[in-house]
Amino acid sequence: MSDVQATVVGAGLAGSECAYQLAERRVRVRLIEQKPKARTPAQSSDGLAELVCSNSFRGAALANAVGLLKEEMRRAGSLIMQVADLCQVPAGGALAVDRERFSREVTRRITEHPCIELVSEQVLQLPAARPLVLATGPLTGDALASDLGRAVGAKHLAYYDSIAPIVAGDSIDWSKVFRASRYDKGGDDAYVNCPLDRAQYEAFVAALLAAEKVAPHAFEEARYFEGCLPIEVMAERGPRTLAFGPMKPVGLTDPRTGRWPYAVVQLRCEDTAQTAYNLVGFQTRMTQSEQRRVFALIPGLENARYERFGTVHRNTFIDAPAVLDDELALRAL
Question: Whole-angstrom Cα distance, residue 35 to residue 15?
Fold first, then answer.
C-alpha cells in the first residue's frame, strides 16, 4: 500500500469514483462526506452517490458522445458504470437506474474497501491536507462554497438547477396513456406517454404561465442552467417551445390513433419494480399546490399522487477554463 494518503471531499458520483480509483491503486483515501450529519435541500437520503435530479445517465448508444464516454469509463474500470449497469431500469435509448438501489450499492462498495476511510464530517473551508480532491460538486454547502469563492472569485460560482416531480405508478390513469420508446428504441415499455391534442396542449401552457411560482429570495439571482430549465421558463420563450422540447411528440405513435400526438409528456420509471415515475424534463419552480393543479391537465395524471414535487435548488460550479490549470488543479491554491 502507498504511504500517500489522499483526501477526497464529497462522496457523490465524482468523489466516490475518485476515491475508488485511488484505492484500487493501493492509495490510502480519506473520503469526507457530510451525510448523515448534514444534507443540502436537494438531498433526501444518507447514501453515497445520491442521484437527486434524474435517474438517467443520458444516451447509451455508442454513436453519440455521451454513450461513447460511458463505454470508455466501463473499459477503464469505472465504479459508477459497473453499478449503473447493475441497477439499470428501462429507459429506451438512455441508461437509467433505480436510484435507491444504485446509491446503496455504491455505498456498500465504498464502505467495504480496505483502502478507504469514510468520514462523516461537514467541511466548512478548504482543508489544508494535500493531495486534496474537492468533489463536492453542484451541491456544495454554503460555508465551503463561500470559502471556495474567496479563492477563485465569487463570479466564477453558482447558478440554479431544478428537479422534476415524481408520481406514484398506481395513481396514473393507464387507460389514457401508452407505453413506447421514441422510434421504438430500447423496447416498447421504456416510457409511459401522456398524449395531448392541440387544445389540451394550449390549455396546459396557458395554465403553466399563469401559475404561482416560488419566488427567489431577494439576494438570489436566478441564473438557470440552460440544459435543465424549469418548464415555465421554457414556456415563456414561446407558445410552442415545449412542443419542440420536453413535450415533443416525434417518434411516438399513439396505438389508438396510429399517429403522433400534438404533444407528449413522457414518464420514466424510477425503480426496478416500476412503482414510481419521473416526469421527464418537467423540472419546475411552481408551488406544490399549483403543480397539483397544472399537472392534472395532463391526460393520465388527473389524480396523480406525488412522491416528490419539483423544486429549484442552487448549483455550485466553477468556471474551469478560468480557474484551473492544465492539470485541472486550482490555480489559486
Answer: 13
**Angle in degrees, 0-180, between the axes of helices 13-24 and 99-111, rounded to the nearest 10:** 30
Return d(Cα 233, Cα 248) in angstroms, integer. 16
How far is residue 234's CA from residue 245's CA, in Å, rounded to a whole number? Answer: 8
Q: Is the dihedral of CA 67, 73, 77, 78 positive or negative?
A: negative
CB 313 within 8 A of CB 161: yes
Cα torsion 173, 177, 178, 181: sign:
negative
At 143, which helix (H) or strand (E)?
helix 142-152
For residues 83 and 65, is the Cβ–Cβ distance under 8 A?
A: no
- The tens digit of pLDDT for each residue in 11-57 reads 999 999 999 999 999 999 999 999 888 877 677 788 999 987 777 89
Angle of CA points 87, 91, 95, to nearest 5° = 55
